[in-house]
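Here's a chain:
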Amino acid sequence: MRLEIVTAILGVALAASGRPAQAEFSVRDYCEVTLRAREIAELEWKDRISVAQLHQGPSAVLESKLRSLDPQYERLKGRLYAHYGTTFQDYLRYGASHRAAIRLYLEQDPDMRGALDASSRRVQSLRQHMESVMSARHAAEERK
């Protein structure tokens, strides 16, 4: 399954980052975590789309299969936040309390800003694709 590959890639990427665990969480870290979390989200949506497209049974079974992906990806995201010495809740608080500094950082780092914008567009596109797949499934079931 794709999740094992994702876990291995994330492990290598985090190890290669060389970030010491005791370092203070910074605006740069915030942006890196955001980018990595979006990359995980992309893979998660791709997995969800694949499961939905391959599933031939009833919607209730599909919903169960899709829910079964939740804990796996939550653990993966938890590892990401832990690597940066934070949690999802602390990450959110940091973003809310450092908005101006984050905006300034992204103005000064157009590569990071571009990467974040591109990943955001990809995730949004995948979400829309999933909505289309699910709508088509529901329409087909209603016709039966």
About this structure: The chain has one domain: 29-143. The mean pLDDT is 88.
